[in-house]
């Protein structure tokens, strides 16, 4: 029996969550085209035969601008020290930036942890561009145990990753039951589903200003369970945007989220969404704690 923890790190929006979902073959992490989608450490678990891979999807590492950002970067950095191997994921369509170098600095702080560079989004690159990217990695970031090229979105080259990673698994226990694919509690998955629908349907500053809280669940022996969920935003104008004209957007968000939640739970539910304004919530530690951020803090 072999198992191992694998950190998925990289700048925001490079495709860490997409790759985690592809490797686990289940939707573990929500995905959107907005940077900063993942806020917490999420574990995606994949067990095949006697090998168990535990992918630790982290929030994108970046220089923090607010308390929530600080929490996100801290979570990612702590992860690097606790794993068997680090996958540093890069968006192959972007030039290597100071942001990537900042990530590399953090990887080097986790001395001794093997590291693999992953060039993602090769569906958008020519062969020459891929070769140049490999050179650029060596020049700007330094040496890796190896460089892997793939497209997480289209599943090109993703099976090869499992083969490579098998070499880093260690003999011993299985940490999770075979059929478990995430360690996220069900209420968190439900909140994340609602947040994903909002991220997909809004733009500009809204995505970063949204927090979700399940305020009540009414279980019924007969009839459907009822979920009441608050959507917090930072300003009145944002509330208006999420609700939309005559409540249209909120209704769409609700319908799409409800369908996904019903699929997850295997039963029909009622879903009530409320939009509330909580000024500057990202800077308020007690409120962040209420939402479950910083709970692992010592
Ligand atoms: N063309 C292409 N797009 C991709 C690929 N992988 C991911 N994407 C897109 O890139 C965007 C970001 O993907 P995510 O998986 O959310 O990125 P992330 O690194 O987890 O982002 P954060 O949560 O912000 O840290 C999404 O719009 C994906 O659909 C790929 O292989 N090819």
TrEMBL record:
GTP binds at residues 10-17, 57-61, 120-123. It is found in: Cytoplasm; Cell membrane. The keyword Mitochondrion does not apply. One of its GO terms (biological process) is ribosomal small subunit assembly. Keywords: Cell membrane, Cytoplasm, GTP-binding, Membrane, Nucleotide-binding, Ribosome biogenesis, RNA-binding, rRNA-binding. Residues 202-279 form the KH type-2 domain. One of its GO terms (molecular function) is GTPase activity. Residues 150-152 are annotated as: G5. Residues 2-171 form the Era-type G domain. Residues 57-60 are annotated as: G3. Residues 36-40 are annotated as: G2. It is a peripheral membrane protein. Residues 120-123 are annotated as: G4. One of its GO terms (cellular component) is plasma membrane. HAMAP family: GTPase_Era (MF_00367). Monomer. An essential GTPase that binds both GDP and GTP, with rapid nucleotide exchange. Plays a role in 16S rRNA processing and 30S ribosomal subunit biogenesis and possibly also in cell cycle regulation and energy metabolism. This is GTPase Era. The lineage of its organism: Bacteria, Fusobacteriati, Fusobacteriota, Fusobacteriia, Fusobacteriales.
